[in-house]
Design a protein that fits this description.
The protein has 14 helices and no strands. The chain is mostly helical. Belongs to the EamA transporter family. Keywords: Membrane, Transmembrane, Transmembrane helix.
Length: 319
Amino acid sequence: MNTAKRSWMVYATLLVVFWGVWGAFSSQPNTRYGYPNEMIYVIWAFTMLIPAYFALRGNRFDRRPAAALWGLLAGLTGAGGQLLLFQALSEGPAYLIFPVVSLSPVITVLMATVLLRERIARIAVLGVVIALVSIVLLSIPGGGSSDSHGPWLLLAVLICIAWGAQAFCMRKAALVGVNDATTFGWMTISGLLLVPVAFAMMGGLPSGAPWQAPALTAVTQVLNAVGALFLVMALSRGKASVVAPITNALAPVLTIVLSLAVYQTLPNVWGTIGIVLALVGSTLMVYSDEKSGEDPAEAVAPGADAGGRVQEAPLAHRP
């Protein structure tokens, strides 16, 4: 196996592990201590500095306008979607919001195939479809409600579009030769820029929260931040039309497995079907990539290596 060609699988696997564990424990600060979601966002934004430091250490920060453009777009769509999610959850039911938001890989796949001309084999297309179905099924909790419409629906659609576009922007940054560290650096800056907005939504610092709340938030959000770095690295090496569905399908599977082990919570019938479909869809996509003779790294712009790192070249040939 060509290590450079398949390295996206390694980072995608690490992403699934970090986001799967994060998903299993991310709600604890709010459910245990009533810690505001906006404050969780603030702490997350600052935890992004930790992986950003290690990513940027020893790497050159790309100061080209293209790097700033795609890095900021990736950061603002991701962080902005997170803030919109808090507002949506305050107006509508989570069990209806998350299935809509979970369709964000559809946006990524459409943008990648139309704008980046990514081509995937038929068996991979089948895997993508199965993975997308599994994502929706994994988002359906038990129970139901008649509250199926409201202003939250528009917000959920906007979040879906924003997070789908975020993955596209990460991939596009790699294709124009922006290294992973730079893209993640701009994403970190974007998250911090929206911290005042989170404070405004919250109405100030929360009072009366025990120290365990911010401490637990920091621990869980570090997992989230590191997972975001692995997403950047996976998308710089693999096709967005494959990486986005496979990671969005498998991370919830690990979350459900951990929740089963820690909280003794069984998935509902839809979740069980979703787990099976996620594994089937992901297997088909990986199998297709194994059989494909096309190297995703070859799509990287001239002047960059397989990881999106810019190589020194005559000025006339730089992207």
